[in-house]
Amino acid sequence: MNRRQLIQSLALAASAAAPMAAGDNKGLKAVSVNHISYVVADYTKTRDFYADLLGMKPVHDDGKQVSLVFGDSFLIARNARDGGVKTPLINHVAYTLDKWDKNAVEAELKRHGLTPRPDTEDSFHVKDPDGFDLQISGKNMKP
Question: Which residues contact 14 (CB under 8 A, 6 or more apart)?
């Protein structure tokens, strides 16, 4: 699936879900991220980054891909079949932190060699090892 097909699929899914987003509570209601799956240049770098920075638990590591569990959700990082992945296909992924102290979060991101870019009072953007735009946010960061 290329970027254009991904965007078209996401737009179709969003338009189908839009009537439920109004809060009628008659249909299904999403409460968290189930999982995010993406292809990376070296899944071991991605595994180590997320396990170290955000405490995600690596499971089902088969030497080509790994699931990283956090809460009721997980992230799947898998190597490209041809090894040629150079750019991400996802705009960004946001994770909500348990506790938010803007200064402490910024310091921790910098400690990991990242360059945090403030977005709101409750979030920063950084790049993960594969160049994905990663948003780190507090519980007040809501749609």
Answer: none
